[in-house]
Structures are given as C-alpha cells and as structure tokens.
Task: structure prediction
Amino acid sequence: MVDEQKTAENVPDIKEDETSEAGGAKEFVWGDGIGVDVSASLMSVKLEVDFEYAENYTVNDLVLFLEQQNNIHHIDKQAVESIFTEKLFNKEVVVAKGIQPKNGENGRVDWEIDLSILDGAKLIERGGRVDWKEQHHILQVQEDQLLARLIDPTMGESGENVYGQEIPATPGKEVKFPAGKGVRISEDQKEMYAAMTGVVCRDGDKISITEVYTVPGDVNFKTGNVQYEESIVVTGGVLADFKIHAGHDLHINGLVEGAELVAGGNIYINGGIQGNDKALVKAGGDVTVKFINNATVEARGDVVVESAITNSKVRSLGRIVVNGNKAVIVGGHVSAEKEISTAVIGSEIGVKTNVEIGEQLLRLKEQKNCEEKKIKILIQNHRKMKEALHTINKMKEMNKLPPDKEPLRLKLVRSGMQLQGEIKKMQVEIKSIEDQIQAGRKQQKGVAAREIAWPGTIVQIMGVKYLVHAQNTKVIFALLANEIELYAYKEGESGKSK
Result:
C-alpha cells in the first residue's frame, strides 16, 4: 500500500523551496492540483491529480478529500491507489461509481399444463419435417384441474448515486391470468382452474376451456352435417358435400373430400384435403394439414402443410409453410401476408403457379391512395369556402353586406366547420392505415424456394410482379425499392426480412 508513504518511485520530486516567477515561495493550499469531475448522471466521479502536486498527497488524503470536500460516496480506493502505482497523473481516472438500481421483475404466469401441445404441428423436427404420427393437438383437462399459478412481481432494489442519494427501483408490472371461458380464478387471485371437463383452446390472447363434440368415424350420410358452438373432434374423415361448422377448434383425423369446414379457431387435419374443386376450409386461426389438392383454404393465422399444395387457392393472413425436402406448391394461387416457404415452386413442365405476398397490404395501400384523393378535394373545397367567407365577412365589417346574404354567411360558417371536422376525421383514418401498412411491412418476408423455383412461376409482392423465366435454385424473392430481387437461400432461413 502507498497511502501512508510517498516515495521517489511513485511521485515526482518537488522541492519545498521552489519559488514562483515573482520570486516568492510557492504556497501550497490543500486541494491544489486535484480535479474532481462528477458525471451529469451523478453515477461516476473522475479524479485528476496534477503531476506538480502529487507529492503532497497520499491515497488516504485523496479519499478524505473526495469524502469531506465533495461528499462523494462509493469510492474505489484501489482506483485511487492506481493513480500513484501506475503514475496516472494529469489523467482523469474513474474513482467512484454509483450503485445502479435493480428493477423489479414483472409478474408472470407459471403454467401447470403444456400449452405447446396446441402448437404441436408447428414443431418441425430436424430436416424440416413434422412427425405426424406423434403429434397431438388436443389438450384435455378435468374439472377443477389446476391450470396455472400467478407469480407476483418483485419490488426491486434501490440504488445510490455518488452523493449517496437514493435512486428508486422500478417495481415489476403485475400480470393477469389470460382467463377466457370455462376457467375460474381462486379467491386470492393466485391460481386458475378448469371450470369444466373439456379441451384447452386459444381464444385470441386468452385461454378457454370448451366442451368437445366427438364424431366417431366419418362425417357422412349417417351423421349428416355437423354444427357445434364449441370444439369438434372427428375420429374419421369427411365425405364430399358435407359441412362442419365449429365455434372453436376442429380436429379431423382422416381425409377431407369436397366438403365445407368452418371453424372459429384452428383446424387440424391429420389426413389431407382431396377437394375435387369443391372443398372450402375456413379457419379463424391456423390450418394444419397433410396436403391440399384442388381446394380453397382460408386462414386468419398460418397455413402449415406437410407435403404439397396443388392446384388450390390458399389464403393466409400469416405464413404459408410447406415442410420437408419434397414440399411443393404447384398450380393455383397461394397468398400470404408475411411469408411463403416451400422446397419447390412450380414444376419442370412449366405449370402456371401464382405465389403472392401482401395482398391485404396492397388493398390497404390502394385504400390509402383513394382516401388521400378524397381529402385533397375536401381541402380544396374548404379553402374555397374560407375565401368566400372571408370576402363576405369583409363586406359585413364595412356594412356593405345585404341583409339577404346573412343566411348565406351563416351557412358558409356551418359548412366550413363541418368540412373541417370531416378533414380531421379522414386524416386520422389515413394515419391509421399508414400505421397498419408500416406494421405489416415490418413483419413481411419474401417467398422462399428452398430447392427450386421453376419457370412458369409468377411471384407477386405488394403488387409488383416477377415472372420466373429460368430455373432458380435455393432462392428467396424479396421486395426491395419497389422491385423484386433474388437472394440466395440459406439453410434455416424462411424469407428475407424487410
């Protein structure tokens, strides 16, 4: 330690009888040669010791100077000592740091059930392939079964700045159970239970328990059409021309022919859809299926397919993903808002295949353009109205306005206020559309052909078209500066982020 001794090794030689230029003895004052700089955040202190004055101080002197003269806390004595041991004179050295507050952790929900089961079909194994035999989408629970526990937020730990002043911590935020239908919360609000025996469903951002209607075997002439406001499970398939309408999820174990399936939640089809140009499948959530052939499929969520989409019209407000190395999209029109990913697009014989990204965003863009034209006309009319009103008001001020023109003046005032209100309302609508477009573009990715995109493929992104004239291997089509560009596909990618 050097705080008790000054040696020639760690301080410069300074003669006590050194005189000033005026000839008098230089008088040393406690604090001379010491510079203290406190950061604007009050969380760090830099100390600078002048080479000429270093001999007058020890480590303890400097520590006392910081504590007593500057009221500094949380001093790092080793940092002060380094000024002497490392000869850091005439340099700013950080010698004190405040203590940062530790903010509290947010509350959370600890689940006692495995919610990942609801997304089983999205769990892609190595090689991009789903194990369809082992997947389970149905999460069954019993009445009074514990579903989740609520963990309270923590308060955190306060900190201190270099003056010893408290810096409050930000407490964690409370969370609530995402409780939907068919669940109950304990009196202390800490536990969530199933209020009935049934299956777990996602209902928007909430978790609900719904009763299940089970159809043993196929939906056919024996069962007739099936309609149920909760979830439906069909252990067999669905024959052509029959209809199933489910208020929540729909699970079908077998093949779907030219039937109509409508569900408010997700639709899971362990077999495929052999549509014969008649099948219609509409889901308020995701559609998960083995294959789609000659069918129309619409989903507000994602469409996840094991092997192929052929000669079909498929529309998704999320992603369309065809898994596996032999996955193919050929013929028809496939449209998604976020991304499309498959191994092969089109065919070697040039079957016309349309793949499109951003159809809904394009409509929003067209709507925005239409609204902007309307508001431009309104603004022009409002300006003309203001000019006319200004002229009439001038005449009124000069007592030159005929009495029979006063009703016209009042009408212009009312019409102007009404028009101004319409303009403001339309400006809000346009801003809302702009925000939706920007948010959509941030989520938007391209069209990925993990193996081949064959000639005859038409790629369309936000209204911009690209016709594939030559075979492209391992390629991503993405929109850049209003043109579709081609990028090399790399394993693990599904699209190029915008």
